[in-house]
Design brief:
Blueprint: H1 3-13, H2 15-18, H3 24-37, H4 41-51, H5 58-64, H6 79-100, H7 106-116, H8 119-128, H9 146-164, H10 166-181, H11 184-189, H12 194-204, E1 209-219, E2 222-231, E3 234-241, H13 244-258
Antiparallel strand pairs: 1-2, 2-3
Length: 267
């Protein structure tokens, strides 16, 4: 047995001391010691610089950067972490916007969130964070692009959530994504034309898109139109407005969000 093995065993023998929940700093200290003796010390140092803290479960971060081209199934790629990270990121961004704009309505908040978590934008941020340096993929036929980096960023957020918890994840999103890479003033001036993008998507994938008035009603003596958005005959969104155009825009937004069309097809 080598010297390093004996050192690790000596530390492990004191595990009850370090793992006492009353003293979380002891666990952090133990983690640092074990990482120091780890053969993956260089990777851990790079991860620590990226994350802003010392990671504990290195394997979960390695999984976050494992592309499906190097995996036998979804359980051994970053796809499940991407799913988790997408939800966690959406919740953190939604909370941030809710507190940032206390006087703005649901439509504005939803549109701003869509702009922030847009897959192309996440891919650009992933590139600026140099996530390509961590990616594990089959270089013989896969080229790293914005979509892959955006997926990896979401998977990384999922990994942070599992390893370090919600508060640490929120700190990472605020400091590494929103504060450094999101210009909120600029985002507010650029509107997403959900209806136009929905038609572009439908044309590209040969889908039948239509809008139909499903109800007309009165609210405070004003006429309100209720419009349904249909994809291949199935209603996927329903919007209300004082005119048909506004109702169609809201219905299109709902479909756009439901189908997550701010992802791969635009890149």
């Amino acid at each position: 047995m080598c010297c390093r093995d004996w050192q690790i065993l000596a530390i492990a023998a004191q595990a009850p001391y370090y793992l006492n929940p009353k003293y979380p700093y002891r666990l952090k200290f133990l983690t640092k010691i074990l990482h120091f003796f780890s053969s993956q010390r260089r990777t851990i140092q790079q991860l620590s610089q990226l994350l802003g803290y010392m990671p504990v479960n290195i394997a979960i971060y390695q999984l976050a950067f494992k592309h499906s081209s190097k995996a036998s199934d979804a359980h051994t790629s970053n796809e499940r972490l991407e799913y988790l990270g997408d939800s966690v990121l959406g919740a953190i961004v939604a909370e941030f916007l809710f507190k940032k704009y206390p006087l703005r309505g649901e439509g504005f908040l939803t549109e701003m969130r869509s702009k922030i978590v847009n897959r192309k934008r996440l891919g650009d941020i992933g590139n600026k964070l140099n996530l390509h340096d961590f990616m594990d993929y089959d270089r013989s036929y896969v080229m790293i692009n914005s979509t892959i980096l955006g997926n990896a960023l979401e998977a990384l957020i999922g990994a942070i959530y599992l390893d370090a918890g919600y508060e640490q994840t929120r700190t990472f999103v605020h400091e590494q994504i929103i504060s450094r890479h999101i210009d909120l003033d600029k985002l507010q001036t650029g509107d997403i034309n959900f209806k136009s993008r929905l038609f572009e998507w439908a044309q590209k994938y040969d889908k039948d898109l239509s809008f139909q008035v499903v109800e007309e009603k009165l609210a405070n003596k004003s006429r309100i139109f209720v419009v349904g958005a249909y994809i291949d005959g199935k209603m996927l969104g329903k919007g209300e407005g004082r005119n048909k155009k506004d109702a169609q825009k809201e219905a299109a937004r709902q479909v756009y969000e439901k189908l997550k069309l701010n992802t791969d097809w635009e890149t």
